[in-house]
Specification:
Layout lengths: L10 E5 L8 H14 L29 E8 L2 E10 L5 E8 L8 H8 L1
Antiparallel strand pairs: 1-2, 2-3, 3-4
Length: 116
């Protein structure tokens, strides 16, 4: 009897631009998650014209030498990713960690965090 409950996948970890087509699924799902998770949150006063969280940081901060964006690609599709930006010479902040809703519970975020 063959156990098919544990599929194995060949994933590729790539450095990409946050403005690339490969990063588009990450940004789209993050924007949706931020909007739905925090839509009723009233903990901070926010001006009506204040930018959304996804728009707070320019793409430049997720590019070398200021930071980096890593994506996990499977079968030509982006399924997970994350980024960091340097705050100073010794400190970086992890940002934009994401796993596609259809690929969760596979340890992908752990892999992204380890690579970052």
């Amino acid at each position: 009897m063959t156990d098919t409950s544990r599929e194995t996948f060949t994933d590729t970890l790539v450095v990409a631009s946050i403005e690339s087509d490969e990063a588009a699924p990450l940004l789209a799902e993050l924007e949706y998650e931020y909007a739905t998770c925090y839509e009723d949150y009233g903990g901070f006063d926010k001006d009506e014209d204040a930018p959304e969280e996804i728009d707070l940081f320019p793409p430049l901060v997720f590019s070398e030498p200021l930071g980096s964006l890593l994506l996990v690609r499977r079968d030509g599709r982006t399924i997970a990713g994350g980024a960091f930006m340097y705050l100073d010479e010794e400190t970086a902040e992890i940002k934009r960690v994401w796993t596609s809703t259809s690929h969760r519970r596979q340890g992908l975020s752990r892999r992204v965090m380890g690579a970052l």
